[in-house]
Amino acid sequence: MKALILLAKAAIGFVWFVLLVNIFHPFPGVAAMALYIMTAFLFMMHGLQMLIFIGAFGDKIKMSRWEKWSILIFGIFALLDIRRKHMM
Hints:
This protein is mostly helical. The protein has one domain (1-87). The protein has helices at residues 2-24, 30-57, 65-74, 76-87.
């Protein structure tokens, strides 16, 4: 399970890399506009996940700053990793 979470985090990291490259060096044509929309959507969804999770479990689970911010970057895969660490 740990290897799959790591693989999924690497995939999401690659997605963020492509989205950030598009911001600083836009891709040609309509691809840039589509990637801008995807960037905003991904940022909003992961931000919402982070706010909901911290609001619901922030006082029950002791999390480091990195774990909180990793939810914004990796989304559900960070949540699965946090659950795995705190359930053991």
